[in-house]
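thought: fold this chain, then report.
action: predict
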Amino acid sequence: MVISPLMLLVVLIAYVVVQAQTHPSYPTWNPAYELFPQTEVKPYPDWVFAIIILLCVLPVISIPLVALYKLICCRIRKSSARTDLNSYCNDGFEVDTREQKNQRA
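observation:
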């Protein structure tokens, strides 16, 4: 419940950091280049780099956000009422022991 989502979040952050450290570039054929028959390597502008990072992060960011929402929602419902069961929360699958049943009776 905690370790797997936390590890996935660490992998996502590490991926974004690695991608942010390597600034992408593209080869161009520039006749004014001093080594003309070879292609000149130019870096992408910063605004293109920001779009690249957004395209990497936006599709995946919903996963940790929904997990965080469900975690918070489950905690709030656990403290408020036990009769309103959430199908995504494990509280609906708890089994009462004999002692708990005897105490209620």
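thought: worth noting. The chain has a mean pLDDT of 77.
final: tokens above.
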